[in-house]
Amino acid sequence: DPIRLSGYIASEKLAIAKKNLIPKGLEKAHMKKSQIKLSDAVLKKIIEEYARESGMRSTERAIDKIIRKVAVKLLEGDKSVTVTANSLFNYLGTAPFKREKHLEGVGVITGLAWTSVGGEMLKVEAVKMPGTGKLELTGSLGDVMKESARTAYSYIRSISEALPLDMDFYKNTDIHIHFPEGAVPKDGPSAGIAITTAVVSALTGIPVRADIAMTGEVTLTGNVLPIGGLKEKTMAAYRNGIKTVLIPEENVPDLKEIDDAVKENVDFISVSKADEVLSLALSKNVVAKDNKQRSIKLKQDRSQTASVCQQN
């Protein structure tokens, strides 16, 4: 079996770019360090918006391209060139990656996914409409993700008595779950709690908090199971300005592996049950049973999570 290694995080990419890629590019172009100014802010923009990947090849190509164009300016008479964030377009063209907008409203939620280029935001949308109880799934989904969506739907049916919705929704309502950016294949079970939240939001008409993201597999009985790729997923949340991330309780030990910048800027809340997720993610509480106790437990979990981060 192949051995899979996690990709570089943003801070590691920045360090590699400064210590290795820039000096290497300057040497190839026969330029001095003083002839070009590339600030950390510009390098971060290159890494996040022009070269989003697990490795460094695209970053190296982007830096080399900038250095070559700066070399031309030096030959034309400039003594030194300062590359700014605003001038990157002149060197690299339009950025292929942008900070993704936060989803907000009824039936929409931000999940977190792991891809071959690192962590990515995973948008989930759900709508209800009059029908006969059909569940439709779209968005270039693999078999595992389709099974995860059906599992989430069955779990919601099992707790329907505790939710403010039509008890016969599974007979007279169709649900359509969509994952935007359909050209990108998506698979795996880690969107389970995001799907659950999106569908409950659609059925109840209660909006989802816009500043929250989540990852975790859900079972038929509402347990939240651990997932892989937490390091990359949390980096995606941090990169896109997400302030709160819900993670499976069993993934708390993995927080010691994530970047310090992520720990300092993102609040992590561990969850073990799907109803905890609903209480946290929806703008209004929909699960009345034991909610007060669960909220207290979650606050304690959050303190423990913060403690884990500080200790590591």
Query: Given the structure, what is the number of helices?
Result: 11
> What is the number of beta strands?
11
Assess the beta-strand content as a share of residues: 15-25%
Secondary structural class? alpha/beta
- Averaged pLDDT: 85
C-alpha Rg, in Å? 23 Å
How far apart lie the N and C ends?
31 Å
Silhouette: elongated
Strand numbers in spatial order across the main sheet = 5-6-4-3-7-10-11
Element string (H = helix, E = strand): HEHHEHEEEHHEHEEEHEHEHH
Low-confidence stretches: 288-312
The level of helicity is 40-55%
Largest sheet: 7 strands, mixed
Give your account of this protein's structure.
The chain is of the alpha/beta class and 312 residues long. The chain has helices at residues 10-29, 40-50, 57-75, 88-92, 143-158, 169-172, 192-204, 230-239, 260-265, 274-281, 291-311; strands at residues 36-38, 81-83, 108-115, 118-130, 135-138, 173-178, 212-214, 217-218, 224-225, 244-248, 267-271. The chain has a seven-stranded mixed β-sheet with strand order 5-6-4-3-7-10-11. α7 (192-204) packs across α10. The longest helix is centred in the C-terminal third of the chain and has 21 residues, at 291-311. The protein is elongated. 38% of the residues are buried.
Notable features of this structure?
312 residues, alpha/beta, seven-stranded mixed β-sheet, two-stranded parallel sheet, 11 helices, 11 strands, 17% strand, elongated, disordered C terminus
Layout of secondary structure:
Layout (H helix, E strand, L loop, with lengths): L9 H20 L6 E3 L1 H11 L6 H19 L5 E3 L4 H5 L15 E8 L2 E13 L4 E4 L4 H16 L10 H4 E6 L13 H13 L7 E3 L2 E2 L5 E2 L4 H10 L4 E5 L11 H6 L1 E5 L2 H8 L9 H21 L1
Parallel strand pairs: 1-2, 3-7, 5-6, 7-10, 10-11
Antiparallel strand pairs: 3-4, 4-6, 8-9
Helix pairs in contact: 1-2, 1-3, 5-7, 7-10
